[in-house]
Write a structure and sequence with these properties.
The chain is an alpha/beta fold. The protein is built from six helices and seven strands. The termini are far apart.
Length: 216
């Protein structure tokens, strides 16, 4: 990976408080966490997107969340590419995926939309599927429930520990991808995460380090 390569990271979701914490907005949530971990703020409010600019490791980055609805995400991505001069191969799109179990992630170098309206519109608008995507598991869809209704539903409070672990794993995967390349990141992160080791019994269990709190 060229140390000077810049990247556009786009989290997908729907704007507005009525969509907050829905499964379809997981791309927004994970990108927000990534931005927080790297001290980046979404200060640029444009008609089609919110954006944050900065550096992650040795790479200049633009982070963006479309202000269009999901099925028009390509408008925001095209505008970002025009403004900042990105080619499709420099784009990383974060999207929810009901075909993956909750908490799993999967990196892909390119490919189809998998029926995801946001990805489908980006491919159609750019005229290319040659962009990296980070698929974030929200599944499985309960039997008999329309997948559209499922992804527009909100996460349960009991999902939070799994979602917080996914945020951290996605942050690690994206950070590693920027430095080592997508192939290396796919090999390292596309498998199931290893279970946390059981603490050794030493009479009294040692306390773990507290998890960082974003104050939200």
């Amino acid at each position: 990976m060229d140390a000077t390569t810049s990247f556009l990271l786009v989290g997908l979701g729907n704007p507005g408080p009525e969509y907050s914490n829905t499964r379809h907005n997981l791309g927004f949530r994970v990108l927000d966490y990534f931005a927080w971990r790297h001290n980046l703020e979404f200060r640029e409010k444009k008609r089609l997107y919110w954006a944050a600019r900065g550096q992650v490791g040795s790479h200049p980055v633009v982070l963006a969340k479309p202000r269009t609805f999901m099925n028009l995400s390509g408008q925001a991505v095209l505008s970002l590419c025009t403004t900042y001069g990105f080619s499709p191969s420099q784009i990383i799109v974060l999207s929810d995926d009901f075909c993956l179990p909750l908490g799993r992630l999967r990196l892909r170098k390119s490919g189809g939309s998998g029926g995801h309206n946001g990805l489908n519109n980006i491919i159609a608008t750019l005229g290319s599927a040659n962009f990296i995507r980070l698929r974030l598991g929200v599944g499985p869809t309960p039997s008999g429930l329309d997948p559209v209704d499922f992804v527009l539903g909100r996460f349960a409070p009991s999902d939070e520990p799994t979602l917080k672990a996914l945020e951290e794993r996605a942050n690690e995967a994206l950070s590693y991808l920027l430095e080592a390349g997508v192939e290396a990141a796919m090999n390292k992160f596309n498998g199931a995460p290893s279970p946390a080791p059981e603490p050794e019994s030493k009479g009294e269990v040692e306390k773990s380090e507290p998890r960082l709190d974003r104050g939200e």
